[in-house]
Each structure stands twice: as structure tokens, then as C-alpha cells.
């Protein structure tokens, strides 16, 4: 039924963008929806693809509607898809290392010859790096947007403003493309799909800057708070800290991804509830491998032991990775497109009393229309 | 000279039957210093000494009776383990009733200064330890000048001591001056942050700063080394004067020199604190229990806690107090006195001019025969007269300026062969000046 809902939404959005299918772990066969009652004589052979429309009617033969999944898969593999992730946090919290660990390759700026001895910039800068990575025949254009200088100054008032501006600029770019008369077949999507916010593991509670930032940005982008360098916390401290952080987020009304209000059905809700209970994930990143019990693992070695990054007893990195990449990657993009982008679009339309399509393809000369 | 010594024969004393004689040499009274007696060895017994080598012992005894005091300040962002470290260092629980505020409550918090005092006694030696904490430091979004209240506090203590010292009753002066400031550097950054630099620069001439790398169990040994180097470089680059360990004398033994060198190389100390005792390899140690291992606080391979404790308590406590007294406090005192004198001189000059408003300055000094401003008419303080004084001040200043101008013009005139009738145009009093 998830597949069907995508098709419906596609109609509504006027086919302006091809929304690629989910990259969930491929189920062998979609489950039979409960309301299709097999008739005594003619049991549908294939999966009962009775969606909302057919409510109860039995199928007389196998049509092959389910092959749409395969077709979409093939298309996606050809075109590939893009994913934009932004990392925000004080310098030194291991953002670049974590991103490298997540995508198992040197994708962040850290590898691009950027020396770690650079001075802290005076204002928040936005730097983005793109890579194309491929796995199982599927190509992904991954863009990491880094924000050096965030929270590092003595006076950090409004340091989230450049970030908010950047995100809105990406929406604006997409909007302009959408509003064109002659539209591109596939609008390049530079919108930020996900923002990982790194919380410093003080063990006490959130800092004021954290709250201010998250308040402002949870409304424009999917925000995923993450506890950085969590090998500094013992298990008890970790649980206490997480509880305190969650409580504070609730008190301040900060809705991080997955947002409760966007849960579509009970299945989603229960899955997401479990995830929300476990957030914010306490992670450790590393790009070095060590030998532990005759296995090579990614980790950090100290005189007192080796912190294994992918060991769920040590840290929650694998939970984050599964959540971010293996199950909710597509959902992140959808929520960005259907909710955050639509909110921005609606605001723009209301503000300007209507958008006029730009006659030329480029549209930069006719700025006044918008 | 030696004859005099020889004439002092202890054997003249008849104290042999009083049990007051030392067991080694029956001709001498039993030394009150016991095994600390510098004259205890066999060969010393035969020589004649004055006996003042026992002075250090006497000083020691007096100070032990009086007890020691030490004020330690801890500064740094919240969540860096300051309280835990203090508790571990001194094996106390100073922060039992502390309530941690959450972020909402902390929005309106400014940097406070809190003091906790505890009396510790160990082997008969009493220590009155005061810990000065700075909650709220570096926690706000805008942290401009958040070190101001810390600097003000330190100055206040100096001022208090200065006043007490200049007072009449100096018997029981309470020394609240801050002897040492442990500044906690976050291990999550890449070296010093702008806030760290500003704080240390504002305070390095008021207090002994000992930088400390907090929560060092986050870092692997190579990361610790890299960070320490970077921090030391940055400290030099920004001209921050942290507490310098006194150089050891050239005649100390190699071991001591080696230790001293190691100590200097360990700055900033990478520390871990813990209030809990955990079981490790069958023995109980203070440490932190992780799923991947146990960090022992007192293991030098794990962190520099032992080095810091030794430095702070066992070897350099007195030196810290001395440097505070001799350098920081003296600087403060000198500055204070200088600014006071400047104020007094300015006041005097101003009131002097006010009192003689219509005369020219130089004429007056010539007449009075002295260059010093004459001490003034007291008590003119209300605002109207102040205004009058200021107006007169301005008039005098203008007159002086004009006078100086004409004087240089006249000199200029007379340096050239000008016709004489110009001379007649000048007012008589100015001619007088020439």
C-alpha cells in the first residue's frame, strides 16, 4: 500500500519531479492487504494488489501491477538519485569523521586536502562537497554541506542565520525551476534533505545555543540531533543525558525528525515511536581499523580498550546508520519535498500574491515577477 | 674565634640526671626535633655548632600550628568535569547539593562566582581549602566579556588584602587572594577557542593560570599528544603567560631534573576525574567504567591526574602562593598606588588653578619661588561652585595658551631686526615677561 500512495501523490504534485522509489530492504513479496477477501473459487495467485480503489473485489487473474516496483527500480538505477545532508555543530565534534564513517568513504572535506590547522572562520561559512558513490548498481550523488564556524565565536548571536538563509535559498532555487514555463525533465535537487545537529556530550543538558538553533531550524528542515563523541559517557551517564535532552526538546517544542505529526499510519507510528525513544543517538565515528578478537573493526584505541564503532553495546552508530540510510532515506526526501518545501512555497505565494511563470528558461532577468 | 667555641662546654651542665640528655651524646640535652634534628648524626655530635640549622624546623612547627590556606579557582564551560575533578583532587564532596539547571533556566543566568570552603586535615597538618567556581561561564549564546566578573572578583580580593595590609590591626588578616586558577580546555575543539584565549589573556597577569585538558578519556594517546602540542603553540603564539614552574637548580640530581622536565612537557595536564570506585582486575580503583574498558584516574598511563595533584598539592602549592604574593599582588598594588597618586596630583593641580584664576601661570611660579602646586583650599564640593571652578579653569587655560603664543611671537619678532616702533605697541605686562 506504500507503493500506491506514492503513485497518488505523484499525480497531485503534477509530476514535477520524479520521486524515486524507496530504497528499503527489498521485501520479497508485498504483504496481502487485509481487506482483500479471497473468494472461494478464485484466489488471486499473485499478491492481492487491492489498493484503496478495489476494496474487497477479487482479482480474476494476475495482472502484473506489482511489477511496477521492478520498473521503478530499474529507472532509479539508471538515473541515480541525490541526497543532501548538512552537518552542524561546534568545531571538533567529529562531524567530518562521522560522515566518512556513515558513507564508508572519504566524502567530507577532511579528505579533500583541507588542513585541520586552519583558523576558525569569523562568521559561519557554508561549504559543500559532492561525491557520487555506488552500491549494488545504485548510484547516489551525495552532497555534504558543512558549516565551519558555527558556535565557535565568543558572540554567537544569530549564527544560525546564514544556515537558515542557505536552506531557504535552495528552496528558492527549486521553486524558480518549478515555476518555469519550459521546465527541465529532472530538476536538480539541492535542497537540504537532512540536517544532523551535533550535541556536545557534556553530560549535563543542552546548551542555549543548541536550543536556539534547533528551535529555528526544526521548522525548515528535517533535524536529527546526535550526541557526538559519546565515548566520553559511561552507559549510565548516557541514558541520563539522553533523557534530559529529550525532555528539554519536548519542553521547548522542538520537533525533530521523524516528526510525530507526519506519521501516516499506525505502522509508521509504531516504527517511528521506537526510533524517537532512542533518539538522540549517541555516536562515535572512526575511520581507523583495529583488530579485536580476530576481527577487523572500525574503532578508537585507548590504553584501556578499543571502542568499536559498529558494536551496539558501545555506541549507537549502527542504529543511526540503519535509520538514516537503510530505512528512512527516501522518507527524508519525501518529507523535505512534500512538507518543508511546500510550506516555503505556500509562504512565497501568499507573500507575493501569486507567482508568474517566467517566460525565458533562465529567468534571472525577470526577477521582478516573483 | 675557635677558642670561644671551645669554651662553651656542654659538659658544664648538670643535667645528666634529669633525663633531658640525648641518648647519643650524654652531654647534650635531648633534641626536641627527634629525627628531624639536623645535628643527629654521630659525627655532628663531636663538633660544636651554633644550632640555627633547626630554623626550618621551627618555622615548620609554627606554620603547622597555624594551618595553611589555599584558594583554588576553577574556570571553564559547564560540563567539562570541573566539580568532579575538584572532588577527586581533594577527596571530598564539595558539590553534594548542587542542582544542575536545564537550558531554559539558564537563559537569564549571568556568570556567578561561588565559594566553597572545606577544612581538610592530614597527618596533623590543617589545610583550609577554598574553591572558587564560576558557573555560567561560556554558556550563553553571546559570551562577550563573560570573564569580567571573574577578573573583578580577583581584583576585589586583592583590594581587600591591600586595605587590610594598610590597616591598623594586621594580626588576623584573612588571605582570600586566589592562588591558582585551573582553566579547563574542552577536548572537543581543535586547540584553544577564541573564548579560551580571551579569558586567559584577561587574567594571566592577575592569577596563576594552569591550563588543564578536560575529559581526556575522549582522546586516544596520539590525539592527546597532538592537542597538547597545539595548545602549547597557541599559548605562545597569543602571548599568554601561564604559570611557569620554577627552574630547578643545576645542582639537583638527574632524577629530579627529569621529573621537572616531564612536568613542563605535560602542560596542559590531560585529566580525568571520578568520584566512584570501580573494580578492575580484582582491585578497587577510582575510575570510569565503560563497556570497552576501565579508565583508572590514578594510572599515569591513562591520564595526568597524578601529575596535576602532585604539582598542585605536594610540590608547588607553596610556590603558587609565593608567586601570587610576590608577582600578581605586587603588580596590583603598584598599579593601585600609581593610579591613586595620579588622581591626587590631578586633583591638586586642578584646585590650584581654580584658586588663582586671573594670574598668569608662570608669573605665579616665579613669585612663589616653587614649582610645586600649593596645597589647596579644602571643601569646595557643591555643584555650583564646581561649575564656577570649571569655567575659571577654561579661562585660565585660554589665557595660558594666548600667553604662550604671544611669547613665542615676541621672541620671533626680536630675533629679527624689526623697526623699534613695534615695541611700543605691546602691553607693558608682556614686556615684563621678556
From TrEMBL, chain A:
Region: Disordered, residue numbers: 15-55
Subcellular location: Cytoplasm
Coiled-coil annotated spans: none
Residue ranges constituting the Septin-type G domain according to the UniProt record: 79-351
Record InterPro entries: G_SEPTIN_dom (IPR030379), P-loop_NTPase (IPR027417), Septin (IPR016491), Septin3 (IPR008114)
GO cellular component terms, semicolon-separated: cytoplasm
One protein family per Pfam: Septin
Biased composition (Low complexity): 29-46
A GO MF label: GTP binding
Keywords attached to this entry: Cytoplasm, GTP-binding, Nucleotide-binding
Family designation: Belongs to the TRAFAC class TrmE-Era-EngA-EngB-Septin-like GTPase superfamily. Septin GTPase family.
Name of the molecule in the record: Neuronal-specific septin-3
Organism: Denticeps clupeoides
Lineage of producing organism: Eukaryota, Metazoa, Chordata, Craniata, Vertebrata
The encoding gene: sept3
UniProtKB/TrEMBL annotation, chain B:
Alphabetized UniProt keyword annotations: Cell cycle, Cell division, Cytoplasm, GTP-binding, Nucleotide-binding
Molecular function, one GO term: GTP binding
Matches recorded under Gene3D superfamilies: P-loop containing nucleotide triphosphate hydrolases
Span of the signal peptide: none
GO cellular component, one term: cytoplasm
Site entry: Important for dimerization: 188
Residue segments, region Disordered: 1-41
Annotated GO biological process: cell division
Cellular location(s): Cytoplasm
Superkingdom, natural source: Eukaryota
Pfam family, one: Septin
Septin-type G domain sequence ranges: 66-339
InterPro entries: G_SEPTIN_dom (IPR030379), P-loop_NTPase (IPR027417), Septin (IPR016491)
Family affiliation: Belongs to the TRAFAC class TrmE-Era-EngA-EngB-Septin-like GTPase superfamily. Septin GTPase family.
Name of protein: Septin
Organism: Denticeps clupeoides
Taxonomic lineage from the root: Eukaryota, Metazoa, Chordata, Craniata, Vertebrata
